[in-house]
Amino acid sequence: MLCDALQVIVCRSFIFEFKVPGRGNRYVPVLKVPVVRGVFVGLFSKKQSVLVGVDISSTAVKLLQLSRSGNRFKVEHYAVEPLPLNAVAERGIVEVEQVGEAIRRAVSRSGTKAKFAAAAVAGSAVITKLIPMPVGLDEQDLEAQIEIEATNYIPYPIEEVSLDFEVLGPVPNNTEMVQVLLAASRSENVELRQSALELGGLTAKVIDVEALAVENAFSLIAQELSVGSNALVALIDIGATMSTLNVLHSGRSLYTREQLFGGKQLTDEVMHRYGMTYEEAGQAKRQGGLPQSYEVEVLGSFKDSVIQQISRLLQFFYAGSEYNRVDCIVLAGGCAVIAGLPAMVEERLGVVTVVANPLAQMTLGAKVQAHTLAQDAPALMIATGLALRSFD
């Protein structure tokens, strides 16, 4: 069914590893596609309520609220609240009550009074197809036809799927047909996030795609990079269990890929080597106090693994595109703050490497601690992109 309760933003300038018919197996960017509004235009045609961005990762809920004065943004409220182990697995919510409780704690700790939220699903949970449709259909007829056509492209019962679409333009060499970009996600992906937010005291107003939220946040750091505005940038988010490559060209998402790898591997190694609990190992990683052998025997090996994973992600991109090099690497996620990692990546891969901080140029609210925020900022790319939806 087409979602009718909240705005589902499912596409913009690129659809995840989308293969354009007639162009072989290369991944081709779909350019100049506006944010999908679909049937939700009416919801957001007037000034909307303040939204908090809520990023639900495998280990934590990250909440962020921004305000804007002119072209300047301000961090009004933020919080990072840990999740119980396995409450979220591979970007999917497993224990919705535990996630909802973590959201409620994050809302309380942050001090926000906002009631509406933007969340996101992983790109791997979104299916996209380009389909031809007759010219001249009104929105109601097009919507009905899309629902019928969708059954040919989606490997799930249609009643289990949330859909949205965008008309891209005429079919090449056929003025009687238009290309329509169909995007779909299993309804449970949307509904679980909606339910978790409700349990946390928030109402979902926007369900975005993580890679597009990252693109939104990237606009805040692009001008700080030492490469030109037309640069090809690899933004690599290394989270607790998942690493995500998002390649951007001229600020627009061109390609995204996820693979299982993250900081949990380091936490697990600390646990086993030093006889700690998971919580103790995580705290020791952040605050120190580990034996001297840790730097060389454990952390050094993990850094090597990070670089191998980054190289592998880039090779997948190069193999499926016309490119063989990126101009800059931006590290995001919790692992980005590991001492010495950016310099090591730059040296090994021969590409300028920096750490993401989408909040660097923002002023801070009275209750926001600058030092803590600076430590968390590289892991707040998705939350930042979601919070920016307040200003769409």
From TrEMBL:
Please give the superkingdom of this protein's source. Answer: Bacteria
Pfam families xref list: PilM_2
> What is the name listed in the Swiss-Prot or TrEMBL entry for this protein?
Fimbrial assembly membrane protein
- Organism of origin: Xylella fastidiosa (strain 9a5c)
